[in-house]
Each structure stands twice: as C-alpha cells, then as structure tokens.
Write a structure and sequence with these properties.
The chain is an alpha/beta fold. It folds into two domains: about 280 residues, 4-Layer Sandwich (Metallo-beta-lactamase, Chain A), CATH 3.60.15.10; about 180 residues, Rossmann fold (3-Layer(aba) Sandwich). The chain contains 14 helices and 22 strands. The protein has a seven-stranded mixed beta sheet with strand order 6-5-4-3-2-1-22. The chain has a seven-stranded mixed beta sheet with strand order 7-8-9-10-11-20-21, with helices on one face.
C-alpha cells in the first residue's frame, strides 16, 4: 500500500490524498481546490498529478471548497467510481459546487473580453455548471458512526470532526495483501468549545493517521472570545465612528457563527438593533441548510432553541440576493454591518465592498478566519499602506481587524485532544497535512514529545510506501 499527497501538502488548501493498494484499488481522500496562492493557483488546479479515470473510490471529509471543489473536474476527466459523504455534507456540496462553477464561468467570461484566442488564449473554466449534476449523482450518503463496506476491501466509518456542518474524520479499515490496515484522515478538526456544533468525536485506533495542522503552533485561548470582540468592533466602527463594518466570511460555517453571535448579543441585551446585511446568495442557502440539520448542533444551541426557534435570525438582518441590491450597499452612508463571501476576500461581492470601504478611516475590514498569505485577506492582515484590487491601487485607511478565536479549525491543544484517544505506540506513521510548512515543523516537534515516533511532513505529489 502507498499514499501520494496531491494537495494540502506543506500548504493549507487543495486537499487530495491518493491511496493505492497492492491490488491496484485507488482511494482518493477529498478532491479540493487550491485557493489563495496567487499566480500559482490556476496552474495547481489544472493538473491533478494522477489519472482521474484510475480512481475507484472517492471519500469526502467535508464541504469546504478546498476539500471538494475539484470533484466535477475529476468526473469530467474520467472518474466513474463511487463517492461517499455525510448527509449534511451532500446538502452543502450541492449548492457549493454549483456556485463554484458559476464563479468560474463568470470570471472566464470577464477575462475573455480582452483576449483574441490566438496571441492571448481564452480562459477555460475548470468545469461548468452542467458538470456538477453528473458528479453529485455518484455520491452515497453515510451517517456518522455507521461502519459501512464501500468495497470488498474497504470499510468506512465517519466520526464527527466538529469543523463545519457535516464534517467528518474518515476512518478506513483496509484489507491489503491479507492484512487489515487501519487508516484515519482527520479532514479538518474543529474546536472543542464550538458555539454551534458538537465537539470532535473519538475515532477508532489507527496505525496510519493523516492529520490537519492549520493552527499546529497556535493557541486560540490566547485570543479574546469572539462575541465580546465582535461587539467591540461594532461599537467602535458603527456607533462611535459611524462607519461600515465589512466582514469577509466563508459561506459555510463562519457566516452561521457570525449570525449566531449577533443573535446572542441581541438576545442578551448587549447590542441594540443595527442594520446587518448578509450579502451572499450562497451564504443564505448555506444558512437555510444549517437550519435543517439540528442533529449536528451541540446541547447549548438546542437549549437556546427552546426560547428562540431560529438561532441564526434576528431583527435588523436583511438578506441581499440580487446584484443591484449588493451594489446599492456600496452607496449607503449610514452605519451598518456587511457580511459577504469569500472568507479570504479573494473572490465574490466582498471585494467590491472592500474597494468602497478601504479608503475611509471610519470603516473597518474585519477578518474572522484563516487567510492564505497571498490572498487579499492575507495581504490586508499585513496592514500595508496600499493594496491592489482588480489591478487598481487603493490606500488602506480603514482599520484592518481580526478575530482569531472564530476559526473553525482547532489549535494545537484541540488537535492533541483529538489524538488523545490513540495509543501512540500503535501509530506506525503520522502525516501532517493542511498546514504551512513552518507551522507543521513546530507541530511535528510537539507530537514527538507526545509519543508519536514517526511524524512526516509530505511534499506536494510525494508518494510514500506504507508496507
């Protein structure tokens, strides 16, 4: 058996890990899109590093685009096998993949206006909307904690990873060359004090583990809690400076947490009514899906629902769906909060809101999650004097804020707790994926102190034999 790391290797995005058994069976863990890597991004997304037609099984951990975003391309280029995910993940990828296709078609059309197709070749989307339905048709939905034979050589068990709605750690019992191999891929691991979701659940003892490492050298408890920080930014920006608070936010997970926090602040009487605009059709759909899956909520949220049946809605919240409504927000003079995708501020309507807000000191751009260093969000967090957006240069006069504790990723203590149910002496190999290389090196040293003897940080497209 061997495994090759075709994404999220010494970087955070592009999750794709290909297991090949001695029998020739190929199992792909995730099929995600690279994001926020500047000029490299397009080239990385064009080549898988393997032949999609040779893949037999696709096992998806969760619905974030950096884990699922290239599935239609995989199918378009020859994958005809079986695919698996949790029920909530399926509901989310159905909207996310259509949205991703729409963005690509729009961006390609915009780029091609100034190209002639000869000296300047036309931009071709990775896939189009018509490619999404064939990909979705290959999926089978599997509940948490239900061991399921997905092939005569493979049994799959999903356990809740507490990262976003439907997220799961993937545990595989693989029959390879007359012996059983237990392999677990963490997907993305959430925090144990998540405001909405259940905490990550224990997973079966494994001998091979792939674990994410996004915050492998950080502690979220060093950062102030999200609700007081959010309240502080609203008061300072909207009430004191009479400005606009723009929050780039991932449509799935982060947006729902923001809405939940705002609802709690209003319920607890800490915040008066203030106009809040959710400007992202995808975020609106994702919020509706979140409401349909209370089985993923923790006990605190279920208790709040006894007195507030909609923990994600409140007076003053307006859904913005049309492009014209979105454009009108940019000419609004009154104080308000605008929540809009994407989370790294690298695409979508939020870039236009930033353009119309960044040159005024009364406004704030508030980042509420991880940003690749080369993304617009990552560049803003460096607090430069100027920033380029769509080829134009803008003076950065607005305040650039950050709420680190709002991340859906666990820190190194959460990741250690996630591994605490494992006997390190039985873990033959532990791979660090989904992290920046310097962070992974720190996390590797931490894990060795915890008793994990063989911890490796694979490079992109590296293949490792597992005996």
């Amino acid at each position: 058996m061997k495994i090759a790391f075709h994404g999220a290797a010494r970087t955070v995005t592009g999750s794709k890990h290909l297991i090949t058994l001695k029998s020739g069976l190929k199992i792909l863990l995730d099929c995600g899109m690279f994001q926020g890597l500047g000029a490299e991004t397009d080239a990385l997304n064009k080549e898988f590093g393997f032949d999609p037609a040779e893949v037999d099984l696709l096992v998806l951990s969760h619905a974030h685009i950096d884990h699922c975003g290239l599935i239609p391309k995989l199918v378009k280029e020859g994958f005809k096998g079986k695919a698996f995910c949790t029920p909530a993940t399926y509901d989310l990828i159905e909207i996310l993949l259509h949205d991703s296709a729409g963005i690509q078609e729009y961006e390609a059309k915009k780029e091609n206006r100034d190209r002639d197709g000869e000296r300047h070749p036309f931009v071709v989307p990775l896939y189009q909307d018509v490619d999404v339905a064939p990909a979705l048709s290959l999926f089978r939905q599997i509940d948490y904690g239900k061991p399921t034979a997905i092939h005569e050589q493979v049994e799959l068990t999903y356990t809740d990873a507490g990262h976003i709605l439907g997220s799961a750690a993937v545990s595989l019992k693989i029959r390879d060359n007359d012996r059983d191999v237990h392999l677990t891929f963490s997907g993305d691991v959430g925090q144990y004090n998540n405001l909405i979701l259940r905490s990550p659940q224990p997973f079966p003892q494994a001998e091979i583990i792939l674990i994410e490492s996004t915050y492998g050298n950080s502690l979220h408890k060093d950062a102030p809690p999200s609700q007081p920080e959010l309240l502080r930014y609203i008061k300072e920006t909207c009430l004191e400076k009479r400005g606009r608070l723009v929050i780039p936010s991932f449509s799935v997970g982060r947006t729902q947490q923001l809405l939940y926090d705002l609802n709690r602040l209003l319920l607890d009487g800490k915040l008066k009514d203030i106009p809040v605009f959710l400007d992202s059709p995808l975020s609106i759909e994702a919020t509706d899906i979140t409401k349909k899956h209370p089985e993923c909520y923790n006990k605190d949220v279920l208790k709040i629902m006894e007195r507030d049946e909609d923990p994600f809605g409140f007076p003053g919240l307006t859904y913005i769906k049309s492009v014209d409504e979105s454009k009108a927000l940019n000419f609004r003079k009154e104080p308000c909060v605008i929540i809009s995708a994407s989370g790294m501020a690298d695409a979508g309507r939020v870039k236009h809101h930033i353009i119309h807000s960044i040159t005024e000191a009364r406004n704030t751009i508030l980042m509420v999650g991880y940003c690749e260093p080369n993304s617009l969000g990552g560049r803003l967090l460096e607090k430069p004097e100027y920033v380029n957006i769509y080829g134009d240069r803008y003076a950065v006069k607005a305040e650039i804020g950050s709420i680190r504790s709002m991340s859906a990723h666990g820190d190194y203590e959460d990741l250690s707790q996630f591994l605490s149910g494992q006997d390190p002496s039985q873990v033959r190999k532990l791979f660090l994926v989904h992290g920046e290389y310097d962070v992974q090196q720190d996390f590797r040293n931490w894990l060795i102190k915890k008793g994990f003897a063989d911890v490796e940080i694979p490079a992109l497209h590296q293949e490792v034999g597992l005996g």
